[in-house]
Each structure stands twice: as structure tokens, then as C-alpha cells.
Amino acid sequence: MTSGAGWIRIGDRVIGTDMPTFIAAEIGINHNGDLDLACAMIDAAARAGADGVKFQNYRTSDFVSDPSLRYQYEREGVRYDVSQEELFRRSELDISGLRRLAEHCQRAGVVFFSTPTSSAGLRDLQEIGAHLVKNGSDYLTNLALIADMARSGLPTVLSTGMATETEVDDAVACFREAGGRELVLLHCTSAYPTPDDEVNLRRITTLASRFHCAVGFSDHTVGVTAASTSIALGAVFIEKHFTTDKTLPGPDQAFSSDEHELRELVQAVQRAERQLGHPAIAPTASEIPARLSFRLSCVAAERLPAAHRLTENDIAFRRPGDGLSPKHATSLIGRTLVRSLERGERLSLKDFA
Predict the structure, then answer these.
(1) What pLDDT digit, counting tens, does each position of 177-190 carry?
(2) pLDDT in tens, 208-251
(3) pLDDT at 4 over 70
(4) CATH number of 8-276
(5) How far, in Å, are 62, 83, 155, 247 from residue 250 at the CA level?
(6) What is the pLDDT of residues 241-269, one digit of tens each?
């Protein structure tokens, strides 16, 4: 349920402008089909401060039908060439597995969500009471599934990796025409890890201004700089691949964050949020005493006798700033003193006739 302009409720969390950034740990296929390991990853993500944990409840046959297709990746200088069908099939999650993981997330205090690859997978998520659903970058052009997500009534995340502007236009239009209202667009570069010169964080502001919805960042970079920078550009949702052991089998482990790195990311984002503060132009609480100490007052440039008519050369500006501001200096010129002033003594309106 929407709680305000641009706000989206996800379980007991609200995301949107001026709300704490929602940080999701993307476990994806890093559990390798081991539900005990998946539960341990949920616990580690919760300890690190994640708000949500994401899985993938695909069916390999939904997107791989040719058993000869291979997937190549490199880790620590070793190049791997694996069967796509075998790689994905070992990490498939059926509804009983999803339910177990969702229940574990609830106990751990994090939001469970997942990426289905079919309407049947979406129905599984609805049946177990998921509060959020995500469409992956590879499925951005699967408009039929996006329409089903819209009709589900679940807040939906659309990732925009590899997309052209027209493809994003089509996906958002499809979602809204099918009745979808609660939408988060994730800026994403589908390169693992993403080179610095391809992160393109400014795209976040483009997505927000063009589509008028919540926008986030799916971070495939090494480190926390990109994620903490993204919130300054308007990101309200950050997703980061996550594992408990970078040496586990699989293509995503090496560039995933571990518990220590995810905690560092959470802390960096929280610090960035504090530093962003408020847009109003006004002194901060710690600047109030500084204004008195550091600002300037109008003072007598030399000893001035009573009945003296003030000239521009009679006025100097000195600390502290508890007297007349320098902006009042021109209004004092030509006025007559009713008492004598010592050099450096602050001028007051009571000093003039």
C-alpha cells in the first residue's frame, strides 16, 4: 500500500524519498541448491544490516532449452567453462523451498523476495505471501510476465541492465497499463564486476525524472563507493550480490559481498544519508555557536569621541558576531555618536542620536 507520494510499503518497511535506503542482499544462485546454506546466508545478511534478501525461483527450462549452451567465467585467474543447464538446475527452488526461505527471512527480520521466470513462479510467490517481486534484467523484454506482476498487486522491481531507452519505456508502460502502481526501477550494468567507467550512476536521475517512480541501484561493482554515491543521486533501493564464502562454486561468488563487506556497505550508506541531510538553507545546530564566534560585528576603527559624525573610515569589522552585522555599516555613516567609543568597541544603535 502506498503511504505517501512516491512511497512504497514492503512488509513493515516503507521506501521512498526521505526514508532510509532499502538494502537488499542478492543471494541469487549462490546457495547452489543447499537450503541450509541459503538459511545461513540469510542470517549473515541480517547480521550485516540488510533489509531484504533476494532469491531466484526460476525453472531452467524457462530460459535454457539447448543443453549445449555453455557459460564462461573467470575467478582468481582460473577460467571456468560450465554447462548452463547444469549450473542453473542445481539451484532451482520449488515452492516448498521458497516457503522455508521466506519463513526463515521472517524469523531473521528481513524481507524475502525473489525473481520468477514464469507466471507459475509468480503464483508460487503469491501463495507463500511474498511482499515484493523482482523482474531481472534478462527478462525486461518479457512484457507478458511484467503484466502479470502488475496484476499481482505486489510492489515490483524492474532491473534495467542491458536495456535501451525504448525497452525501459515499453516495460514501464506495460506495467502501468496492466494496473501496476508500486514500481521500483533499478539502474543496473550487467557486467560482473562492473568497470568504474561503465557504472553510469547519473542514469539514476534520468530514470527518476523520466518515469516518476522510485529508483534504485543494482550494484555489481567492487567496494561500497558506488552504492553510497548512488543515494546522493536519488537511489532509494540498493541491491548487492551476497555470499558467505567467495570460494564456493559458482560464477557470482567471487564478486559478491561477504558479511563484512555488506556491513561496510550498510554503514557507508547510512553515513551518506546522514551527510545528505536536508535541502533547506539554514545554519545547522553546531553552526549556531560558530555564528557568534566567527561572524563579524561593526566596531570602532579608532578611539571616537562623543558628538563625532561617523565616516566610512571609522568602521571596522571584527569578531565576535554578537553586534551589528557589517551589512548595517552604510546605514551608520553620517550619524552622530552620543558617547565616546574605544578602539575595537562594538557599535550599537543606542550609540547614536
Answers:
(1) 999 999 999 999 99
(2) 999 999 999 999 999 999 999 999 999 999 999 999 999 999 99
(3) no
(4) 3.20.20.70
(5) 20, 12, 30, 9
(6) 999 999 999 999 999 999 999 999 999 99
Give the N- to C-terminal CA distance of the chain in Å, as an integer. Answer: 67
- Residue 220 CA to residue 198 CA, distance in Å, equals 11
Residue type, 315: I
Torsions phi, psi for 316 (to 5 deg): -125, 165
Q: What is the DSSP string of 286-320?
A: THHHHHHHHS-EEEESS-B-TTPBP-GGGEEEES-
Q: Is the peptide bond before 283 cis (omega within 30 degrees of 0)?
A: no
The helix (H) or strand (E) run that includes residue 14 is strand 13-15
Contacts of 331 (CB under 8 A, 6+ apart): none
CATH class of segment(s) 287-351 = alpha beta
pTM above 0.70, yes or no: yes
H or E stretch including 238?
A: strand 237-241
With a pLDDT cut of 70, the percent of the chain lying above it is 98
Question: 343: helix, coil or strand?
Answer: coil
- Domains of the chain by residue range: 8-276, 287-351
